[in-house]
Design goal:
alpha+beta; globular
Length: 106
């Protein structure tokens, strides 16, 4: 299972760093705090984050672990204390595919 996420921002550029088992998000909506999400065993993230707005893929064999990781990333970038229609910044799920379809797309 592979879930492709995309970071979207309009006002404040965010930084996303993906290492082996940790995804860290900094300067979300101009805040200085760093949000880190640990990947469970069996999940991998592609390290092709050259541009922040470029989609990245979280892949793994266990559907529950992959979807839980994507949900944690999405919830950590949820806009609070601001108007939801005006601030559309966040990380959203773009596409869900199976591992067989990944080799054919790229």
């Amino acid at each position: 299972m592979c879930i492709r996420d995309r970071a979207c921002y309009a006002y404040f550029p965010m930084m996303i760093e993906a290492k082996e088992k940790v995804v860290s998000i900094t300067s979300f909506i101009g805040r200085r705090e760093r949000k880190t999400i640990e990947l469970p065993s069996g999940c991998t993230i592609d390290n092709g984050l050259k541009d922040v707005k470029q989609p990245f893929c979280i892949a793994g064999t266990d559907l529950d672990k992959v979807s839980l990781t994507c949900a944690k990333i999405n919830q950590s970038c949820k806009v609070r204390d601001k108007h939801k229609d005006k601030f559309l910044d966040g990380i959203y799920i773009e596409e869900k595919t199976h591992l067989d379809g990944i080799e054919n797309e790229f």
